Amino acid sequence: MPINIPTHLPAAEKLREEKIFVMDTDRADTQDIRPLNILILNLMPEKERTELQLLRLLGNTPLQVDVTFMTMATHESKNTSKSHLDEFYVTFEEIRGRRFDGMIITGAPIEHLPFEEVNYWEELTRIMDWSDRNVTSTMTICWGAQAALYHFYGIGKQPLHEKCFGVFRHTVSDPTVKLARGFSDLFVAPHSRYTEVSADEIRNHPDLDLLSESEEAGAFIVLSKDEKRIMITGHLEYDAGTLAEEYRRDRAKGLDTAIPKHYFPQDDPENDPLNTWRSHTFLLFSNWLNYYVYQETPYVWA
């Protein structure tokens, strides 16, 4: 089944080129069907790239998905045009009276700041608290996951001696958990961050399960005991070339960023990287939409 997106969203054409079934809102309005309503709070600077990455994954299931993009009212985006945001995004005040079946909160390149010093932290905490009452299941990614762990569970982030940057091997603690159904015993995933959360703090928290971790990259997939919150510290949604672009961007800024680990063939930045995590990315999003959203959400919100 298709994803329903705004009629003129730039990502739509690229999705069609990739043979992903896209239905725009004009056509969707003519169909008598109850789609899953997914809200995406996009905190990434290059919002159009993140839109494409996430829509690609949400469009790879048998379920019909209606996507709403949200931006922060208390933060002005420097990398995305105001016209794009005005046409395709809503603010919290515009949707706070609605309920959603699922929600995604992306990462943001602001790890160097204490949470309370982020200029939209107060608004974000209001949104996260609202999501507890108005969203069936929420998935948070990278900094978004750290923010959720801090706000709901009091688990802070610590700076790393060097950037966690590359594609790392992970294991699953319990393959019978629905979110990990179909996962291999070992799988890889990209990470790109300067901070980490303590795996031991997560293990010792009575309301959390550490579903997946890496010897090199640490805690990866965290699941709340009530299964309403999924927190992912890496970037399974990344394209094959995303880490390469980040590496070249950092080097161009004069940063002493090391080559991403286990990423370029022969560790040579002149070689094109391969996407070795794609299958598990699609599987994770499919499991989330099926088991944690579709199977749990009410057909009619009370």
TrEMBL record:
Compartments, as annotated in UniProt: Cytoplasm
What pathway is it annotated to?
Answer: Amino-acid biosynthesis; L-methionine biosynthesis via de novo pathway; O-acetyl-L-homoserine from L-homoserine: step 1/1
* Gene Ontology molecular function: homoserine O-acetyltransferase activity; homoserine O-succinyltransferase activity
Domain of life, per UniProt, equals Bacteria
Q: Where is this site: Important for substrate specificity?
A: S192
Keyword rRNA processing tagged? no
Is Cytoplasm one of the keywords?
Answer: yes
Q: Where, in this chain's numbering, is substrate bound? A: K163, S192, R249
The protein's annotated catalytic reaction(s) are: L-homoserine + acetyl-CoA = O-acetyl-L-homoserine + CoA
Q: Where is the active site?
A: C142, H235, E237
Q: What are the alphabetically sorted keywords of the record?
A: Acyltransferase, Amino-acid biosynthesis, Cytoplasm, Methionine biosynthesis, Transferase
The record's annotation in CDD domains points to: GATase1_HTS (cd03131)
> In this chain's numbering, which residues are marked as the site (Important for acyl-CoA specificity)?
E111
One Pfam family it belongs to: HTS
This chain's function reads:
Transfers an acetyl group from acetyl-CoA to L-homoserine, forming acetyl-L-homoserine.
Q: What is this protein called?
A: Homoserine O-acetyltransferase
Q: Which organism is it from?
A: Edaphobacillus lindanitolerans
